[in-house]
Automatic annotation (TrEMBL):
One of its GO terms (biological process) is regulation of DNA-templated transcription. This is Ribbon-helix-helix domain-containing protein. Residues 4-41 form the Predicted DNA-binding protein ribbon-helix-helix domain. Pfam families: RHH_3. InterPro entries: Arc_rbn_hlx_hlx (IPR013321), Predicted_DNA_bind_prot_RHH (IPR038733). It comes from the Bacteria.
């Protein structure tokens, strides 16, 4: 594991210390968890943005609709078997 040194505003550092104390975990573990969650949210936001962008693309929507029609057809065949 690498070591990372950073500066934080005094009020944020105080909030960090208080939360870490309340949760009975070291400050670095709280920072690690918070950063992990934040990075996951950024990734989700990128995915959502790409899906929104795709939903505005007529060619992508046509392919999706075609795929859904094929999927529906497969479901109907499966139900009759």
């Amino acid at each position: 594991m690498a070591t990372f040194t950073s500066s934080l505003p005094d009020d944020l550092l105080e909030k960090l210390a208080n939360e870490a104390k309340n949760l009975h975990i070291p400050k670095n573990k709280l920072i690690e968890k918070a950063l992990t969650m934040y990075l996951q949210e950024l990734k989700k936001a990128r995915y959502a943005k790409s899906f929104r962008r795709a939903s505005e693309d007529k060619d992508v929507m046509a392919m999706a609709e075609e795929g859904m029609a094929d999927y529906f057809e497969m479901l109907q065949k499966h139900d009759t078997e």
